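ugh ok fine here u go
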Amino acid sequence: MTNFDPAGDFLFANLQIIPSLATPLYQQLYERLRNAILNGQIAAETRLPSTRTLAESLGVSRNTVLNAYDQLAAEGYIVSKEGSGTVVASLLPETLLSVDVTPVATSKPAPLPDLGLSQRGRAYMQTPSMSSGPVVVGKDSEAFRLSQPALDVFPFDLWHRCVNRRTRYTASEFYSYQEVAGYRPLREAIAHYLIVARGVRCSADQVIIVSGSQGGLDLASRILLDPGDSAWFEDPGYLGARGAIVGAGGKIVPVPIDDEGLNVAAGLARCPDARVAYVTPSHQFPLAITMSLSRRLALLDWATRTNAWILEDDYNSEFRYAGRPLMALQGLDSSSRVIYIGTFSKVLFPALRLGYLVVPESLIEAFESARRFIDVHPSMLEQMALADFMEEGHLTRHIRRMRTLYAERRELLVELARRELPLEIHAPEAGMHLVGWLPDGSDDQQISQRAAAQGISASAVSKFSILPLHRQGLLLGYASVPEADIRAGVPKLRRALLASLPAPLTNPSTA
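structure:
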């Protein structure tokens, strides 16, 4: 390994940066170093000077060098090695993006394999997903991971106690097939909880246990949509719901979101005879908008008049930090047009894979019949343990603790983001994430990638959209991020932003 000498001939011949140019200083430095690496003037594995040393040699601020190094690292030109500092990568990104064109001695090119997929299979492969890697409890959190609950404070001892008790003492009769709708005591506990906490009008007979909200979306889409049927879909919106509708052969009709939620008038103009509407009215994903009462009533009126169905995904309504939780859309429905979808992934932990549907009485038989041909019912052990967890009061106590904790983490992130990040922050007092709107002309997916290179998860809003957006932004989760990681993560995100925006900006955040 060789050392790059910041006082050598290379510096004065090729590494000059000129303050009078319109190009920012960090961008000039980035371009000079990148060209030198690609031209071989700085060889692979060469150790670069520290940011302080190079800044002093060039007569610029250390932040200028930091931003240049950050951009080079984000694009794969340099890497940090423990004990060696910052070195030029041994394998440059241009190499990784190039195809090996060495000729192969064959008589003719091998044909691409015919996978023999159905139209549904091809549609699944072409639909973006909410891909997310595993989270290891007790390890460093990833700021600002989206839709992840605070596993670091989950009462695993209480949960293990419920599971172990059921493992030891469950009667043998529960080792056979059970009701396709799920474990009856759990359905009763869920119905009671929803009546009190969400204003849902239901009985335990209407509750069907599914494998998370995704299982509920898939089941409902299969039953309510024929191939070619149109479905109103919030745009931008939840990718899991889009995949379920596409998988059932439905035709997605993107309907824009404004400051009152789903624009019902736009939906009527685009496709008045849609069969289904998918909505997240309590806390729209990803834009964190609460649907107004007038829009809720307009949506219900449309569904009643056209015999359409509404899929209400109430994925994290428990986390509201000011005032009482808003009544679910289903509670306003007097014509039985709403299928209510809930999950325990956000209030407990994602790997539990238990959720529920509340279906109108007229659909109970249809949903149960379809369920028999899909997976019969989820694991009984987890259902029974969850019923005990709820009946013993652990769920409501845990939710109360999480409301307090998430409110504190939200407040800290909002304070730091508005002070340090060149974003316009939209942070309603609800949910598990906030939205940071970017300046005009920004590329949120490029910024998201550069943030990832810094170890920061900042999902691009445009990832969830179908039609082009008027504005782009980043989604920053805070529920799973301890305060220390929030404080450490904001400066890293700032560096990624400043390396991507055209010039350093003052903070345009508004309340």
